[in-house]
Design brief:
With about 725 residues, the protein is of the alpha/beta class. The protein has four domains: about 30 residues, no CATH class; about 200 residues, 3-Layer(aba) Sandwich (Rossmann fold); about 190 residues, Dimethylsulfoxide Reductase, domain 2 (3-Layer(aba) Sandwich); about 150 residues, Beta Barrel (Barwin-like endoglucanases). The protein is built from 28 helices and 27 strands. The strands form eight sheets. Strands 4-3-18-17-16-5-6 form a seven-stranded mixed sheet, covered by helices on one side. A six-stranded mixed beta barrel has the order 22-26-23-25-24-27. Strand 9, helix 8 and strand 10 form a beta-alpha-beta unit. It starts with a strand and ends in a 5-residue tail after the last helix.
Length: about 725
């Protein structure tokens, strides 16, 4: 994007027509960042909670002095393992924020690192750890060359790609079909992407059974690529034996897909000139998310489509996330386990669903101090009510954010953070996910508004008070004791210069440095296509082969044999989530541009289900699971598969943001189970898709019903 700045204020954001990949296109959420940047509800000064529960403005010195004093007291009385940090999704879009948060916890010796990943993507990383030996070795579909793309639970026409960086992704998918290829979308809802291409309706959380049945057909009909399997992997016999138990006829009740259709899907995939299988949030948030992610990649291996042009490929950026994470000690899986439930860490993350229990359960490592940055776990984790209650018992809670949200309104202090326009950035986490190899660096556009500070700078203050250097790398911590400090920019420049495309400090004149990248404000296209032939450099197993028989997956395959059906006569429907073009999780509902024309949060329901429940368009219903209930208006749509309902997440605001509060809506995650027994065992993922629910008509007055109907009608039925 291009920013217009007048008198030190960003007044406009528009698409960059000179960007070599986006070519003048930007997501509406990007354009709307001016609303956030200049929002009168934005927190611009340190705030401290008073005895009355209200917040008062204080100086940075007052805030830091009191926070650091209380932080030291917690460490000295309860130990460093009683200090926790939760980082929300926007933290992933700041390299310095991420490195410094984890570095702070590692430096003080606390395992309590939580992120939005356990409500999003951690199972994808867990599967990669098992398959490739590193959680950050993640293949992407080679969109620009593939002939057959199979998408599980992703909606890229709305998300624009997730764990996939694909500029103008609609154009890339359309180009795929123009060259004679196919895009097949497997989803319980006929999403915006499914509507544009081919849709296969599946029952929620049925992905594992479908994938096993497709593997069954491929093996039974001899459609596997034996040469590729032999060259790239180990353990195919286990996979073949496991798939033999799932002929398509046996899985219809789980998937809702006729057996012959499954057989044809498997044949079409295996016989395509080149193909790629890709899954995202919809495939991640069921009860078997890690197994599903594993099987998605196994299908790529078995059909000979891993690490080949047009298949599932691995990026080769100038600074690879997997390499950086290993150098910083961040590429971990099961190196630590949660105190509650014994769940393995994923990239250091523990299950955020368990935060309330971790705070309230006495014993070693009980959380007594909690920092929350760029996050809103009260809305994003199951049973936010319990988390709100638990936070009241902490000895210290600090929020770093743009807003007083539903979580940090319970904090002792709220500290103002910068927007991406007020700091530099180098998107390390996303460089390897580009469908066209690309790199860019952005300087800050304006000075921080008010007294906002970058998160890494604030973390330095906390670390200094505890006498540590916030880094996951021991040598950097040792140098810190000598007074030698590294800024984020300095670290990134060093890593680029000694990386595969670096200039090695002048020894390779054509190589890259941060300065050279910054000199190209529109970014640099590094190659026409994503590299292939990279598998042996990516796999960390000693023989450089993909593991198709890890014991953890063998255990999951045993577990699903006894899996019970979620629905019952009492709760006959299954609830899934959905993405909205004009929302981003819970933090962009205060934008007037994104809420223009009215917004609502209706329950999407198939007309047949509605008729059976006596529900009409705009009616208010009580949506209930075994764990909670909410009241929402209904919108009827044939896009929903019968038996499935969908409700967007991120709503139900009651913080310090006026526009968001006025939108109404409910916290859908109050319906999700929150006990350790309900978490996905290999990644500690929350169970947010496929929840068994009931729908009951709520009696309303005529005027109230009219208002509900008016709200649903005013809002765009599909984002």
């Amino acid at each position: 994007m291009v920013a217009t700045v007048e008198d030190g204020q960003v007044t406009k954001l528009r698409p960059d027509k000179d960007h070599p990949l986006s070519k003048g296109y930007a997501c509406p959420k990007g354009i709307a960042m001016t609303d956030l940047q200049n929002d009168p509800d934005r927190v611009l000064h340190p705030l401290r909670k008073t005895a009355s529960g209200e917040f008062e403005r204080v100086t940075w010195k007052e805030a830091l002095d009191e926070i650091n004093s209380r932080l030291k007291r917690v460490r000295d009385t309860s130990g460093p393992e009683s200090i926790a940090w939760y980082m929300g999704n926007p933290g992933a879009f700041s390299y310095s924020h991420t490195l410094w948060v984890k570095g702070f916890l590692d430096a003080i010796g606390s395992p309590h690192y939580y992120t939005a990943g356990s409500q999003d993507v951690n199972n994808r990383f867990a599967a990669s750890a098992l398959l490739y030996g590193s959680p950050l070795v993640v293949p992407i579909p080679d969109l620009r060359r593939t002939k057959h793309l199979m998408i599980f639970g992703a909606n890229p026409l709305v998300s624009h790609g997730s764990v996939l960086t694909a500029h103008r992704i609609r154009d890339q998918l359309m180009d795929l079909t123009k060259r004679g290829g196919r895009v097949v979308v497997v989803d319980p809802r006929r999403s915006e992407t499914a509507r544009a291409f081919e849709h296969v309706a599946i029952k929620p959380d049925g992905d594992a059974w479908l994938l096993l049945s497709m593997l069954n057909v491929i093996f039974e009909e001899g459609l596997e690529d034996a040469t590729a399997i032999e060259a790239q992997s180990r353990g195919v016999e286990m996979l073949k034996e496991a798939a033999s138990d799932y002929p398509p006829e046996s899985t219809v009740s789980r998937t809702g897909i006729p057996a012959e259709e499954v057989r044809q899907m498997a044949r079409d995939l295996a016989l395509a000139d080149c193909a790629a299988v890709y899954g995202r949030t919809g495939s991640c948030l069921g009860r078997r998310g890690t197994l599903v992610s594993f099987l998605l990649d196994a299908l790529n291996v078995v059909t000979g489509n891993l690490d080949r042009p047009g298949g599932a490929v691995f990026g080769k950026p100038p600074l690879a996330l997997d390499d950086v994470a290993e150098r910083f000690g961040l590429a971990t899986y099961a190196s630590n386990r949660s105190r509650i439930g014994g769940f393995p860490d994923v990239l250091g993350n523990l299950p955020a669903t368990l935060l309330a229990e971790e705070i309230e359960t006495p014993g070693d490592r009980q959380i007594r101090a909690l920092f929350v940055s760029a996050g809103n776990p009260v809305l994003s984790v199951p049973d936010g009510d319990s988390l709100e209650r638990a936070m009241g018992g902490l000895d210290l809670m600090v929020g770093l954010d743009f807003y007083m949200n539903e979580t940090n309104k319970h904090a002792d202090f709220i500290l103002p953070a910068t927007t991406f326009l007020e700091r530099d950035d180098f998107p390390i986490a996303f460089l390897g996910f580009h469908t066209t190899p690309f790199v860019n660096y952005t300087e800050k556009v304006v000075e921080p508004a008010g007294e906002a500070r970058e998160e890494w700078q604030v973390i330095e203050e906390f670390a200094s008070a505890l006498g540590v250097t916030p880094s996951s790398v021991p040598p950097i911590r040792w140098l810190g004791k000598l007074g030698i400090k590294f800024t984020p920019q300095r670290i990134v420049d060093l890593l680029i210069r000694v990386g595969p495309a670096g200039d090695f400090f002048g020894l390779k004149p054509k190589g890259l440095s941060l300065k050279k990248i910054a000199a190209k404000p529109h970014g640099i296209v590094l190659a026409e296509y994503v590299a292939t032939g990279e598998l042996k450099t990516k796999v960390r197993h000693s023989d450089s082969k993909v593991r198709l028989d890890p014991p953890e997956i063998v255990g999951e395959l045993r577990r699903i044999k006894g899996a019970v059906v979620e629905t019952s006569s009492e709760r006959p429907l299954q609830l899934i989530g959905l993405r909205e073009l004009r929302s981003h999780n819970s933090w962009m509902h205060n934008s007037k541009l994104l809420t223009r024309g009215g917004r609502s949060q209706p329950l999407h329901m198939n007309p047949k289900d509605a008729e059976g429940h006596g529900v009409t368009e705009g009616a208010m219903v009580r949506l209930a699971s075994k764990d909670g209930s909410v009241e929402v208006p209904v919108t009827l749509t044939e896009d929903m598969s019968p038996g499935t309902v969908a409700l967007a997440h991120g709503w139900g605001h009651s913080g310090g943001w006026k526009t968001a509060n006025g939108l109404g809506g409910v916290n859908v995650n109050l319906l999700a189970p929150s006990g350790a027994e309900d978490l996905e065992p290999l990644a500690g993922m929350a169970f947010l898709n496929g929840i068994a629910v009931s729908v009951q008509l709520v009696a309303t007055s005529g005027s109230a019903a009219a208002r509900v109907d008016e709200a649903v009608t005013a809002a765009p039925p599909r984002d």
